[in-house]
Amino acid sequence: ELKYDYLIVGSGLFGSVFAHEANKRGKKCLVIEKREHLGGNVHCENIEGINVHKYGAHIFHTNDKQIWDYVNSFVEFNRFTNSPLANYKGKLYNLPFNMNTFYQMWGVKTPEEAKKKIEEQIKELDIDNPKNLEEQALSLVGRDIYEALIKEYTEKQWGRPATELPAFIIKRLPVRFTFDNNYFKDKYQGIPIGGYNKLIDKLLAGIECKVGVDFFKERGAWERLAKKVVFTGKIDEYYGFEHGRLEYRSLRFESSVLNSDNFQGNAVINYTDKETPYTRIIEHKHFEFGKQDKTVITKEYPQEWNSLNEPYYPINDDKNSKTFTAYRKRAESESNVIFGGRLAEYRYYDMHQVIGSALVAVKKEFDG
Ligand code: FDA
């Protein structure tokens, strides 16, 4: 007799939403998580009373009212609005590219002047078939914005010259001719009041969870416990890397507690010059309008991925896409395993998207 209906491998948003919905429908679930805590990449650690985003800054945003209502049914969200700044060689610019940025860059005061400036720069370059990321970006925003706010930042992120990066990485570069520093265009955004752990705890309430357990260590034994497996780990690992390894970009986070109540006055400041080795500094308290005496900041350094650090961003180039297709074909033929989430689907998912995708999997599983 099988003890559980579902063994859920991974306690990130995909696994947690699936477990919650299955449990609600009377199914018995066991969640196993290889890290020492639940929540996957949205997990926060409390330091000096501040919720520190351990795996990079997480700002919830969506246009989908159903998803917004869904998360708000577990935890209330605050009114945090992401309005990052860029520091280029010591000078600050507002992001995303908007009238404030154009004023800071050229002194232009009207949308008409700003448009003229950008159009002139694009025309001067005369690129009609962008061959790489550099040409693509130049053809969209012109030289000044590209050089101060895109080029060196992107090269740090990818560890390669922009001329060697494919054009498809940048599809659009929205420029806004209003004085509006709100980074996201979505209707809803915010941070859970009390942090993301609260959301995860609510989702997993009443469900058996084991942390510090790697599925692959005793795979057979775990598989024999449940009728079905929901797998949210790396799909190539699930198949023993038989079709080759999927590649990622990684990050290194360097956090420090400072004896200051406000270090940079904003949650996110990007460093877009090549002289600064990190790409941004996060000051976590500002996500929740914190009034603590101290502050915690995190410098984010892009890194090559290896088997020792975290796989963060999938590299969706031709080679990796082909490898993934081979794994996906095998996954499609499994009848007792559901693959979901950023690692099993080898794609970058925002939180609202991964929740949406888990709810689709739930619907398919329980409503046919
Ligand atoms: P997630 O990785 O969270 O969970 C998978 C879990 O499975 C992990 O906990 C892992 O340890 C576990 N696992 C893997 N293999 C296992 C095994 N063999 N045995 C047991 N457990 C195993 N989104 C957004 O909307 N706004 C934002 O601002 C950001 N910011 C952001 C910054 C950075 C740096 C990154 C990398 C990502 C974001 N995101 C984001 C995206 C967000 O992190 C993402 O959508 C979700 O965390 C994905 O949830 P998953 O459940 O898919 O994976």
Automatic annotation (TrEMBL):
Gene3D superfamilies tied to this protein: NAD(P)-binding Rossmann-like Domain
Start and end residues of each UDP-galactopyranose mutase C-terminal domain: 149-348
Entry cofactors: FAD
Example of a GO MF term: UDP-galactopyranose mutase activity
Coiled-coil ranges from the UniProt annotation: none
Keyword Ion transport part of the UniProt annotation: no
Pfam families reported in the protein's UniProt record: GLF (PF03275), NAD_binding_8 (PF13450)
Assigned EC number: 5.4.99.9
InterPro entries (UniProt xref): UDP-GALP_mutase, UDP-GalPyranose_mutase_C
Keywords of the record: FAD, Flavoprotein, Isomerase
EC class: isomerase
SUPFAM superfamilies (UniProt xref): FAD-linked reductases, C-terminal domain (SSF54373), Nucleotide-binding domain (SSF51971)
Family affiliation: Belongs to the UDP-galactopyranose/dTDP-fucopyranose mutase family.
Protein name as annotated: UDP-galactopyranose mutase
Gene source species: Flagellimonas yonaguniensis
Gene of this entry: glf
